[in-house]
Structure formats: C-alpha cells, structure tokens
Amino acid sequence: MLYRVEGIVVRTVDYGENHKIVTLITNNSGKVGVLVRGARKVRSKHASLAQPFTYGEYNFIKNTGLGTLQHGELIASNHLLRADLDITAHASYVAELMDRGIQDEEVGLLHFEQLKACFSGMAEGKDVVVLTSIFEMRVLIMSGYSPIVEECIHCGNHVGPFKLSGYAGGILCSRCSAQDASLTPISDTALKLLRLFKRLDLRQVGNINLSNDVKKEISLLIRQLVDGQLGIKFKTRNFLDNLGNLV
Ligand SMILES: [Zn+2]
User: Fold this and answer.
1) CA 156 to ligand 1 center in whole angstroms
2) What is the CATH code for 2-76?
3) SS3 state of residue 174
4) Distance in Å, CA 148 to ligand 1 centroid
5) Is 120 within 8 Å of 127 (Cβ atoms)?
6) What is the pTM of this model?
C-alpha cells in the first residue's frame, strides 16, 4: 500500500552501510518506521529527509512492518535544531518524549501538530526551555495524566502555599503535605505558570520571557510530573542535564 504523509523525524537508526530507518510522527498515519535507502550516502537525494527533526512529505510503500521510502520532499529541514548544542539537547529530549512517552497506537494529528509547532518555535529562536516545558505538559495531558494544579489533590483546598508531588500528579496544600518532606515547594509565580502552561497550545505560543530562576523552577516541577507519571528513563536526559551544569 502506498502512503503519502507529512512527517517529522523523531528517531533515526543506521541500517547496513548505506541506509537509515527513520521513525516518523505523521499527520495521518500515526507513528511509522520507514527505511530510507542510501540515506547515509553523502550525495543521496534522500539524505536530508533522514535527518533528526526534519519535517517533510514522505511517500512510502508499506505492507506489514517497515515502510520503504519511494520519494519525498523537504518542508522544513529544522537545521538550527541540529546546529546549536543547547537547542539540539532540548529538541532531542522533545523527540524522545514524543517517541516513548506516547503509546504508538495513540499518536494522531494532535501529536503531530504539537511537535511541529514545538520544533518550528525552536527553529524561530523562541526559548527552548519554555517550549520544552510546555511540550512536556502537553504530552502529560495527551497521555491522560493531566496534572491537578488548581487545588489540593487530596482535600480540594484552594489556599496555598502548595507543594508538588510528581507521583500523585499534582499539588498538595500545607495540611496534606505536612507528613511528606520529599515534596517540592512551589512559588506563586511557578504555580501561575503551571496553570497557564496547562492551557497553552504550542501552536499559539508567542515569546514567553521568564527569568532564569523561574525557568529552572518550572522545568524542574514539570520534570517531576513527567517522571512521576510516565516513569520512563529518557536517554536524552543526560545530555540535557550535563548541559545544565555547564551554564
Ligand atoms: Zn489538602
């Protein structure tokens, strides 16, 4: 069967001496693996379609298992995402989050649209830390783990201060969190942002300017939610965390 999709590359694996297998998040066929013949050859016309983070049109034949690329067109190479270490680290984590954080059969147009918006925002120079945090929030929500950040997850109390529990998937008031010293305190600013990020669609996000301290706090909080709810050990995290230590 012949497929014609718009797709974004979230993973590439070398195959033999000359080929690559790419994992695509597509607009109309979910998540698919496609063999790109000759992609490792420098002069291959398909090499650019097999680069990480590339957005393109892919025409492939698939019966069972892997598809095989027939031809394709580049829509956005997103080359900046591979050119800057900090952006690459964030884009790699976003790609892995999409690849492993969402069940294969659940991937649909919404996932494709959010990923596309996230990568194009990064390519336009928007803040990668903010985009990554919003993307993590979207993945949580799309996977059915929407965090409770409006009120205490135990008793419904609306009055702060609150602490975050990644495992409980939300915030706890001071009454309910008194017994647990491992919970993370949340500043008022971070709480507002958690609530805002929950409602944000990446297709509508402009430039959000936040101080480094606030960015650090919010990304740590959302990271705890991702870890507590998804329970995945992400390979790209080391790359990100090591970078964080350098700056
Ligand atoms: Zn409570």
Assistant:
1) 6
2) 2.40.50.140
3) helix
4) 12
5) no
6) 0.94
